[in-house]
């Protein structure tokens, strides 16, 4: 299976557009994660791409965790936080 078919299968199963994921990943490379505005923007993009709404309270917790507490920002961190925020 070539990469194109692999990513198309992921898109079918998850509903997540892989081009958007790659664009987001590229934008993260030079992002300043000490900047609250940047972190909020990334959270909103991930939420939109994953089709998982993030409440203001959860967004604030994620921002605090990354900007103030120095946690690394990656897909795993955001995914874990989104899943913890589910009821």
From TrEMBL:
One Pfam family cited in the UniProt record for this chain: SpoVIF
Name of the molecule in the record: Stage VI sporulation protein F
């Amino acid at each position: 299976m070539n990469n194109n078919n692999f990513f198309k299968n992921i898109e079918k199963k998850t509903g997540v557009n892989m081009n958007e994921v790659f664009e987001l990943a590229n934008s993260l490379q030079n992002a300043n994660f000490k900047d609250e505005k940047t972190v909020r923007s990334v959270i909103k993009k991930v939420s939109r791409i994953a089709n998982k709404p993030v409440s203001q309270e959860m967004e604030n917790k994620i921002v605090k965790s990354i900007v103030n507490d120095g946690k690394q920002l990656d897909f795993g961190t955001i995914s874990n936080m989104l899943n913890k925020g589910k009821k």
